[in-house]
Specification:
The chain is an all-alpha fold. It folds into 4 domains: 76 residues, no CATH class; 138 residues, no CATH class; 132 residues, no CATH class; 268 residues, Up-down Bundle (Four Helix Bundle (Hemerythrin (Met), subunit A)), CATH 1.20.120.1900. The protein has 31 helices and 6 strands.
């Protein structure tokens, strides 16, 4: 980098520092910023854009567009991604994506490329290229056969005369250098004309000389087949020598039938320059009827071509079922047209008169139901065709959603037979989904080879994540399965857990879900099919929900009885929540004594052995081997570092997961702190006080001890009785009412979170917890001062601290209760209110 460039960058960096900071040139930070900017500008090297990473990010954005049903954006983004080649292109894409701000929330308007029109070439190339040449014109318009023969003879004579004239001119102009190039051109042109004339005389048999009569040509060549088809067809057609052709109704009807059947021989409809006419219709009405026929035939052919083109494509089961039944509906329409043609052929053979029994207008009226069916089918086909490039799961859901909206959100046109076909199309397309549900919920077999079901399972076995993270649900708004989506998800989880426990009870039924649903629909009157929601509720949802409830109840019974989940809950309550006071007192009392005597109590082996010995004689002693104690460093409190670990085995960990055990341990530590403060105050004896203290000091310390004891006892009663006991009774009632494992998980999570919050351990009540810990620290200070010589000022400081803290807690809790928040704190708030005598003493 040159010196001038460095000076320029230095000046820019000084401006940048002045614009973004308030540093002066004399500040040390000013020089640091200046050196930093120059160092980055001169020596920093940016990494090249990773094209593979950008492709993944762009594909993720495309998937996001598809999920939000923004298909034009997804298509344009995919097209842009395919066109990227160089590293510069991917760098530009990365820059644009970094600038993008919530692309799904803005409407996309495509900016079409401007195509510059090419300048019009006004130069007369024909005149320039034909300059010096004689133009050879052939008139291809003939009015009669005699005139054609005369023109043919005249052409032959003119060709011979022109050859002689050309030869003479060549001999005359021989040796002339100025016109040598023109002579060569004329000679080659004449030779070419003579060659084609001779070839035409020897090979081509002109049709006007044969009188229009051809022999039957038997050949596989397309031209021969074209002639045979035309000759067989043209018996009722007149020669197209005028601007109007008179046809009969039979030819028009037969041609229309061929058009609906997809035949490429559309002779009438190809004669755009002629106006077909029949005696039974005016010109305008005829054209109107033919346009209607052509419009519906075009739609039918487009649908046939699309279904035929999908023979080599890989389908999901739902799409395959739709296309299969949809193609059968189209074939039924084509078969009806063929039946009409057969009827006409039979009638013409049986009757000598060539008059057709149908007119074109009657024919159009006859096929009106078929044309209505074509219109309805095409609407369904067109909407689905636009969304066939997405993945199997979204494609299946989209097909079923569109068909469901068709049969529920609109009044189907046409006769009841058309409506029945649409309902059958929906039912047959739904069959793969119903089979997946049936074999999964009834037999435990997930037959979803294309991963198209709206519930997908990950490979997670026998861990607590099996229930919570191994299943993904498509979040697309899907009205059809919305009423039973929750039950399906719970049943799918329950079936998998029962399978892994070898406890799945298979309920064999003669009819599968599709047969049951079909039979219920057939029992309903056709007019009642319009209420599809009621049909689904009574004919499908009820059977699915019944089986889902059965499977979920089976898993719940297995967990509560075979795996004794009730005893697991009881173990957690009695040991973590200290509900078994006598057993847990044998565990924590030696720890409190070691803390009082300033001994080390953090021996993990000793703690684990002490805990297991305490519960050896308990009714739940079978769980003792699953407990062990660990000690970790913690700044929150002395007992927060001690963790009581419980080995939750599978499938218990589906309900009692690691997050709930963390809450149990925090509650356990808080309860131990309360027990520790109560133990310390209970063991402060008057006889243990230092005899050198004055009577006033002794008296005030005893009163202070009673005040502390009053606060701790009220807090202890609030936690152990008002919170733990009441919440435990509510939890037992929820367990009794649980109908599935999801209810069990919800009840347990609600129970432990409720206790955690009401024990003042949540973040919202952290300031109350800190005030309580201040009192705990004051109790520890009083315990140390009890056997020492203390100053009156130290006692006064503890009295003031206790008074202020209790007053703050009481006033704050009362204000919160009056506002209707935290009603469970009412007992604690009233218990902390000072008596009249206490308030009088405080005032003095």
């Amino acid at each position: 980098m040159s010196k001038s460039q460095i000076q320029y960058l230095s000046g820019c960096s000084l401006k940048l520092i002045s614009a973004f900071t308030d540093f002066g040139r004399e500040d040390e930070n000013y020089e640091i910023c200046h050196d930093f900017i120059l160092s980055n500008l001169r020596f920093h090297r940016y990494l090249d854009t990773n094209s593979h990473d950008m492709k993944r990010k762009a594909q993720g954005l495309i998937d996001k567009f598809l999920i939000h049903a923004q298909h034009p954006k997804a298509g344009k983004m995919a097209k842009c991604l395919k066109s990227l080649e160089s590293l510069t292109d991917f760098s530009a894409l990365r820059f644009i994506m970094l600038l993008a701000n919530r692309p799904t929330e803005y409407e996309y308007v495509e900016d079409f490329e401007r195509v510059e029109e090419e300048p019009i070439d006004d130069f007369d190339w024909t005149e320039y290229l034909n300059r010096g040449l004689e133009v050879y014109n052939i008139d291809s318009t003939f009015s009669s056969e005699d005139e054609l023969e005369e023109d043919d003879k005249r052409d032959d004579n003119e060709a011979e005369n022109q050859t002689q004239n050309t030869t003479t001119n060549n001999n005359t102009l021989e040796g002339t250098t100025d016109t040598e190039e023109e002579d060569k051109t004329l000679v080659s042109l004449v030779e070419e004309i003579e060659y084609h004339d001779g070839l035409e005389k020897r090979v081509v048999d002109k049709y006007w000389r044969s009188g229009g009569k051809f022999e039957n040509i038997k050949s596989s060549m397309p031209s021969a087949n074209l002639y045979n088809n035309w000759f067989a067809y043209s018996t009722g057609l007149s020669k197209h020598k005028a601007s109007t052709s008179f046809l009969n109704d039979y030819i028009l009807i037969r041609e229309s039938i061929w058009l609906f059947c997809g035949s490429p021989a559309k002779h009438i409809f190809d004669f755009i320059n002629y106006t077909p006419r029949v005696n039974s219709l005016s010109e305008h009405s005829l054209i109107g009827l033919l346009k209607v026929i052509v419009e519906h035939a075009k739609k039918l052919k487009e649908m046939f071509d699309y279904t035929d083109s999908l023979s080599q494509k890989v389908f999901c089961q739902t799409e395959e079922a739709f296309i299969s039944y949809f193609a059968s509906l189209l074939n039924e329409i084509r078969k009806k047209f063929l039946d009409i043609e057969k009827t006409l052929i039979v009638w013409l053979k049986e009757n000598e008169e060539p008059k057709c029994p149908l007119t074109l207008l009657k024919f159009v009226n006859m096929i009106e139901p078929e044309m209505k069916s074509i219109t309805l089918y095409y609407e369904i086909f067109y909407s689905l065709k636009q969304n066939m490039d997405i993945d199997f799961q979204l494609r299946s859901l989209f097909i079923l959603s569109e068909l469901y909206n068709t049969v529920t959100s609109r009044n189907l046109i046409g006769s009841s037979s058309i409506n029945i076909q649409i309902y059958k199309l929906f039912l047959n397309t739904l069959r793969p989904y119903l089979d997946i549900i049936y074999y999964w919920i009834w037999y435990g077999e997930l037959r979803d080879c294309k991963n198209e079901f709206l519930i997908q399972r990950s490979k997670i076995d026998k861990t607590e994540e099996l229930w919570h993270s191994s299943y993904t649900l498509n979040r697309k708004k899907f009205l059809f399965f919305q009423p039973i989506l929750k039950q399906l998800l719970q049943a799918a989880k329950s079936v998998d857990v029962l399978q892994q426990m070898n406890k799945l009870q298979v309920s064999y039924e003669d009819d599968n879900l599709f047969d049951i649903f079909s039979e219920n629909m057939l029992q309903i009157d056709i007019d009642g099919w319009t209420n599809m929601d009621k049909i689904l509720k009574n004919g499908l949802y009820s059977h699915v929900i019944k089986q889902c409830d059965f499977v979920c109840k089976c898993l719940l019974d297995v967990l509560l009885t075979d795996y004794q989940l009730t005893n697991t809950f009881k173990t957690l309550q009695q040991f973590y929540l200290l509900e078994d006071g006598e057993t847990m007192r044998n565990f924590y009392l030696p720890i409190f004594e070691m803390i009082r005597d300033n001994q080390d109590w953090k021996d993990v082996t000793l703690l684990t052995t002490s805990f297991q010995d305490s519960i050896n004689n308990h009714e739940l002693q079978s769980f003792s081997s699953r407990f062990h104690v660990t000690v970790e460093e913690s700044d929150e409190g002395s007992f927060d570092m001690m963790k009581l670990n419980f080995d939750v085995r599978w499938p218990e960990n589906i309900v009692v997961h690691s997050a709930s055990l963390t809450l149990y341990n925090r509650i356990f530590a808080f309860l131990l702190q309360i027990k520790r403060m109560k133990y310390a105050l209970d063991n402060l004896r008057f006889s243990n006080m230092n005899y050198n203290l004055t009577q006033e000091a002794k008296h005030r310390m005893c009163i202070l001890r009673m005040k502390f004891l009053h606060f701790i006892n009220n807090l202890h009663v609030y936690i152990m009785r008002r919170i733990l006991q009441t919440s435990g009774l509510q939890f037992s009632e929820h367990l009794r009412l649980a109908k599935n494992v999801e209810d069990l998980i919800s009840a347990h999570n609600r129970y432990i979170k409720q206790i955690y919050s009401r024990c003042l351990l949540s973040d919202k009540l952290s300031f109350i917890r800190q005030a309580i810990f201040k009192i705990f620290n004051a109790v520890s200070s009083l315990e140390k001062m009890w056997t020492e010589i203390v100053n009156i000022n130290e006692i006064t400081a503890l009295e003031v601290q206790l008074s202020k803290t209790v007053s703050f807690l009481a006033s704050f809790l009362m204000k919160v209760i009056r506002k209707g928040f935290y009603p469970h704190l009412e007992f604690l708030a009233f218990s902390l209110q000072p008596t009249k005598s206490a308030r009088h003493n405080q005032s003095h």
